[in-house]
Amino acid sequence: MGQSRSCIGPQVILVGLDSAGKSTLLARLLTGQVVETSPTIGFNVGTLVLDKKTSLTVWDVGGQSSMRPNWKFYLDDCKALVFVVDSSDRGRMAEAQKALKKVLSEEKLRRVPLMVLANKKDLPNSLTIREVSTQLNLHSYSDRLWEIQACSALKGLGLQQAFLSVHKLIKKS
């Protein structure tokens, strides 16, 4: 019976602007299904099993501007930050860059690795990884382990690989 603790993996916090696709992404990872989501008030949480020995507890925290000041309350045992950005929404990249910079300035995240997921890559005019990286000013985070990957929560593309990479980042840090 003492096995239940091993199911609870390191905590990963999923943040990003509203409508970036965080809840769709988490639901797709956990169920394999596309689920109708509505704006997250508060949070969703689930355990993502990567393989027999590896799981992550993923917290999806609401991204509306009124919710962003609450992000810091979810960071206590955070082992990796996953920042989800809508790579098709060029008009909100500056806002995303500000939100990312603000959350990364939290003391609790000082040594925590970052995974940026450029979501919605299935949409025709989505930015490339390089463009997203430049717009978010990722090169300025030279003191932090970080990675960026493209994905599509809707199509399920790149999600499993991204979270396997998150697990590797956690082990490295």
TrEMBL record:
Transmembrane segments: none
Entry-linked InterPro entries: P-loop_NTPase, Small_GTP-bd, Small_GTPase_ARF, Small_GTPase_ARF/SAR
Residue sites binding GTP per the record: G16, L17, D18, S19, A20, G21, K22, S23, G63, N119, K120, K121, D122
Role according to the record: May play a role in apoptosis. May act as a tumor suppressor.
Keywords noted in UniProt: GTP-binding, Lipoprotein, Magnesium, Metal-binding, Myristate, Nucleotide-binding
Organism: Parambassis ranga (Indian glassy fish)
Family annotation (SMART domains): ARF, RAB, RAS, SAR
Record protein name field: ADP-ribosylation factor-like protein 11
Keyword Lipoprotein included in the entry's annotation: yes
Annotated residues for binding of Mg(2+): S23, T40
Family to which this protein belongs: Belongs to the small GTPase superfamily. Arf family.
